[in-house]
Every structure is written in structure tokens, then in C-alpha cells.
Specification:
It catalyses: Hydrolysis of terminal non-reducing N-acetyl-D-hexosamine residues in N-acetyl-beta-D-hexosaminides. The protein is of the alpha/beta class. The protein has helices spanning about 15-25, 40-55, 95-115, 145-160, 190-200, 200-205, 230-240, 260-270, 285-295, 300-310, 320-335, 350-360; strands spanning about 5, 25-30, 60-65, 65, 70, 120, 165-170, 185-190, 210-215, 220, 245-250, 275-280.
Length: about 375
């Protein structure tokens, strides 16, 4: 019996208590954060131990490796990658942008694949809009839905080619949120017409992807009480209107946007229709509540998982890593010389992104 939950762990190696707990409860998978990462050999050992402790063959190992501000694997052991919003500053040619986005994702997949990590919680398909909180900012690929849709798909393709499953997030759209859902519950007041024309479009274009993640956001045009993660109406919208039929993960259940006990949160997300409960902070007492109330992986959720697992390439796309890194570095270096700075919601993060780019070839 596999539990439909993904859990964290507390440090660089499993404690005896964690290993016993995971062996007993058999979670579907695990997610890694900075607290779990030191060097490549240590990460490989931890990943192997996590997979062994789960007690079943098809264990998902997740990580947030977007580039820019959000990347758990960092220098000096791993290259730094540019934020999603950087690529538009490299070239005005959307076809070149798309090529570079895919190339960057393919290189990130190579890093993850080497460690045994098989899921990247990317791409961000949120469209950052004026007035929105900067939690998205340069994590978004652009400021119009079409660009985000195209570049998000390029990221998915690059990850899949490298043997890593993408997770489209945050369904059905985080770009209008005026608060960070890590700390508070955002309420989006846009009309249905606005949401359907902009926010939903990138997810509709990428609805065939294997994994998706919900947003802890209230969309009061549809549902005034519950955030999407715990709203039957919004999960139905994700399934029927947006058309996503992949395995649907909650965003982290320990985030402060959600209310109630951990038991309350799991029960609400499960009742709303989420397939898999995601809990990230590695706190044992909270994980005990998560697994106690997470469903077994069965029925339609089991079929969705099997379909997602089948998308993992048995033979990954060949790539010359050194040549690919050089190609990306050369393209990104043009930003200093020819790309005008844009006045947009990601402006505050441009310097951080540039610093990341300059490290790209240094590993």
C-alpha cells in the first residue's frame, strides 16, 4: 500500500526515526530542500536511501530547480541557471528564446538525472501582472499569457528529454496574487473573463503534462471561501475547463495560506479532489498527521500516476553537456551589451539573475 503523499526529511541524511517511519508508511515520494543538500555524493546517498525506505519501485524524488532565485542545487557543486524572466532580455527573437529555455531545462535535467532526482517542480506558468506580489516576478517567463505558455512548454520538453518529469504550477494561476501564500492567503478579485483570457491559458496549453501543482489562492469570481487547493469548484475547473488530467499535487500543506490543523488541511485537500498531498518541512509530528489522513494511491489517482511515470524516458536525449553549457553561456552574455532593461515586475530581480548567469560556466 502506497500513501498518496510526498514528504520531506530533516537533514543531509535520514535519521533512524525517519527511515523507520518511511518504511512503515510507504509515501509515494519525497522532496528535497537546501537543508538536504551539501555535495553530489551526499545527495546521491540521500536519494538512494529515500528510495529504499519507501519500499516500492516507483518513487518520486522532487526538487525546486527553476533557476534564478529558486534553485536548491547551487554553486560551487552545480551551475547557477538564469531565472525564467531573463530569457526575454537575451533576444527579441521568440524562437531563439524558446531554444535557450529548452536548452537550460535540458541542462538542469542532466544535473538532476545524475543525482537520481526524477521530478523538477517547474515550470512556473503564472503570468506576473501589475499589482501582483513579487513572489512570481522573474520566475515567470514573460508578461503575456502566450509567451508564458510557449516558454513553459519548452521547459517541459527540455526536462522530459533529460529523463525528468516537469510539474506545471501553480494551477490555475498565481500571477495576480497580492500576497505570498507562504505567509498569508491571497485573494484574487479578477473577473472570470480576465482569468480565462490570461491566467488559465498557459495551463490549458500545457494541460497534457504529467504533473501539476495547485495554488493556495482564493479566486472569488468562482469561490469566495476556499483556496484552490481545498476547493471542489476550483479542482473541477482545473480538470474540466483547463483540461488538466495529470497527477495533481497540492502546494506545500505547511504554508500559512492554509488554515486549520495539518489534519484539517489534508482532509480538505483530499475532499476537494487533489490526488497527492505535498508536505515539505520535514517535521515529524506534521508528517505523521499527513500520512494518517492521506489516501492510498488507487483508482483514478493510481492511473494518473502510472501515466506520469510512463513519461519518464527510458533512454534520455543525447546531449554534449560542455557544448550546451557554452552555447547557453554565450547567448546569455549578450544581455550585458545589447539587451535594454525593461520596466516590468521583475526589475527588482535583474541583478540577481545576472549574477546567476555569470556563474553558469564556472562549474
Amino acid at each position: 500500500m502506497v500513501k498518496a503523499c510526498i514528504l520531506g526529511c530533516s537533514g543531509l541524511e535520514l535519521t533512524h526515526r525517519e527511515a523507520e517511519f518511511f518504511r512503515r508508511e510507504r509515501p509515494l515520494g519525497f522532496i528535497l530542500f537546501g537543508r538536504n543538500i551539501d555535495n553530489p555524493e551526499q545527495v546521491k546517498r540521500l536519494v538512494a536511501d529515500l528510495k529504499a525506505s519507501a519500499g516500492h519501485p516507483n518513487v518520486l524524488i522532487l526538487i525546486d530547480q527553476e533557476g534564478g532565485r529558486v534553485q536548491r542545487l547551487k554553486s560551487p557543486h552545480w551551475p547557477a541557471y538564469p531565472a525564467a524572466g531573463t530569457f526575454a532580455r537575451v533576444s527579441n527573437d521568440i524562437y531563439e528564446q524558446r531554444e535557450l529555455v529548452r536548452l537550460s531545462a535540458r541542462l538542469m535535467a542532466a544535473d538532476l538525472y545524475e543525482l537520481g532526482i526524477n521530478v523538477d517542480c517547474a515550470p512556473v506558468l503564472d503570468v506576473p501582472l501589475p499589482g501582483g506580489h513579487d513572489i512570481v516576478g522573474d520566475r515567470g517567463y514573460g508578461f503575456d499569457a502566450e509567451t508564458v505558455a510557449v516558454m513553459g512548454r519548452a521547459t517541459c520538453e527540455g526536462l522530459l528529454a533529460g529523463g525528468v518529469l516537469p510539474v506545471i504550477k501553480h494551477l490555475p494561476g498565481h500571477g495576480r496574487a497580492v500576497a505570498d501564500s507562504h505567509h498569508a492567503l491571497p485573494v484574487v478579485t479578477a473577473t472570470r473573463q480576465e482569468l480565462e483570457a490570461v491566467d488559465f491559458l498557459p495551463f490549458e496549453v500545457n494541460a497534457d503534462m504529467p504533473l501539476g501543482m495547485t495554488a493556495h489562492i482564493v479566486y472569488d469570481a468562482y469561490e469566495r471561501k476556499h483556496p484552490a487547493t481545498t476547493s471542489r469548484k476550483m479542482i473541477r475547473l482545473i480538470r474540466q475547463k483547463i483540461g488538466f488530467d495529470g497527477l495533481l499535487l497540492t502546494d506545500d500543506l505547511s504554508m500559512n495560506a492554509l488554515s486549520g490543523t495539518m489534519t484539517d488541511r489534508v482532509k480538505a485537500a483530499r475532499a476537494a479532489g487533489c490526488d497527492v498531498m505535498l508536505h515539505c518541512n520535514g517535521k515529524m509530528e506534521e508528517m505523521e498527521a499527513v500520512v494518517a489522513h492521506s489516501p492510498r494511491l488507487r483508482g483514478i489517482a493510481q492511473k494518473r500516476f502510472e501515466a506520469a511515470w510512463a513519461r519518464l524516458n527510458k533512454r534520455i536525449e543525447p546531449v554534449n553537456i560542455d557544448e550546451a553549457r557554452l552555447r547557453l553561456q554565450q547567448a546569455l552574455s549578450r544581455i550585458d551589451k545589447s539587451s535594454p532593461r525593461r520596466t516590468d515586475p521583475t526589475e527588482a530581480f535583474a541583478d540577481t539573475s545576472l549574477a546567476a548567469m555569470r556563474e553558469l560556466g564556472g562549474v
